[in-house]
């Protein structure tokens, strides 16, 4: 292990000319603009910004973005800071291959500094750009200062900026030589001190360990104040033992899933693989040999196949995105169960889906769920038949399979009611409900193709909140029984802030459109009859009766749906 000092300018130059690179198991640049601004502020104030850890390896040649990289030094800890420094100095690092995105980032991360702060020289003000600062010459781009190659250039910049500031503050006056010198004397040392951040020394630690050791080192590092997740560490171990796998296999599959609305974190993929291949979700129980080049490609192929299969089967029931689920961890045993299905002649997807929904109702895999996940994927691995697996899984749940009367009177936006909110949507979808205005199928676009990107239902208050606030309590207004699913353009642009009596007539929303949305027969009949009966039943005075009636209808429909799929 060797320690040396590199200036910020030298670190950025090495990132640009490929002397530094990032290994494929590193995450993308995720820093926000405020973090970059804080980094500039720390550098200006000469605060510590941490050391960089570089890996000197002649064996490992798998970069994040390009195959066959010849970089001799890999950034194990410091990628986010190096990329931020590159943005500050305005030089694109080698691994950033999207020019258009880089140009957008240059604008977004263009930190500005106030050369004449109200507090005097106690400290310069750093801020992100906005139209006001862009037109105020007291504010200048940090990048425009630090990118200057020669220190001699600072004098002309300071004089030019002094003249602009004077004209901005005194539009009718002429800048005298004395005033020019006074402003120059204020501005020049501040610009000079700012420029010197490019010469700031950063401690750099170099290691030359074996690739397996680097994964362990990566595991013990703190990044952005947060301990690296166990699954991310395991992903790193898999990456260094299988060069090219992350870039050529893992990341493209993740991207393809995201395009279909399935944005899953590394833990889901890693534990699906261990659940399928080893019957464990607790990663410390998985031998390191599991991630070897002889084992990983096989189990990865199996995991990809079952994830894609389950995604398509779930779409048949309206689950287009994990964002709909109370717990994405529940997907891990669900994937394992569906993989094992190929060995069971008695397998039934609908019955498996029934257990999956009840497990989400139970919250079995919410929070710290590793013990539950480990128990269940092990039971699935060891089960001889599908019925045996289902019996073991169902016996572990501590929730009633029947939704009780009154549950849909709970508030829709509360975290504990996400399962019930999911059921509202599934009832609508599986009754082929349509949008009340544009008549498109709920969960589908106008072409009839499944929603592909990040589908989330638009929750519509049948009796809008704005017209109920002065008459009813929030718990009643936001009850699940007052919620249905519509397209965003209908919810926001057509029905918002209108009484049901008004919008039902204005858009000719018929009983046939209302029925799949679990509106009770009593209110459907009033809509058919029209006249005084319609106005009386759908008035604001009848709101409490409406949610009581619809609560019962929703409970009945949801229970029938759950019983139907439980029966296979």
General description of the model:
The protein is α+β, with helices and mostly antiparallel strands and 568 residues long. The chain has three domains: 1-226, no CATH class; 230-395, no CATH class; 407-566, no CATH class. The chain is 50% helix and 8% strand. The protein is built from 26 helices and twelve strands. It has helices at 8-16, 33-44, 79-89, 99-108, 131-134, 142-146, 153-169, 177-195, 211-219, 230-241, 245-259, 266-278, 296-316, 331-340, 349-362, 370-382, 386-395, 418-430, 465-468, 474-477, 488-493, 500-506, 511-514, 521-529, 531-537, 543-566, and strands at residues 2-7, 20-21, 52-56, 73-77, 112-114, 125-127, 139-141, 201-207, 222-223, 226-227, 458-461, 483-486. The strands form four sheets. A five-stranded mixed beta sheet has the order 1-8-3-4-2, with helices on one face. A three-stranded antiparallel beta sheet has the order 6-5-7. Strand 9 (222-223) and strand 10 (226-227) form a beta hairpin. The protein is flat. The relative contact order is 0.07.
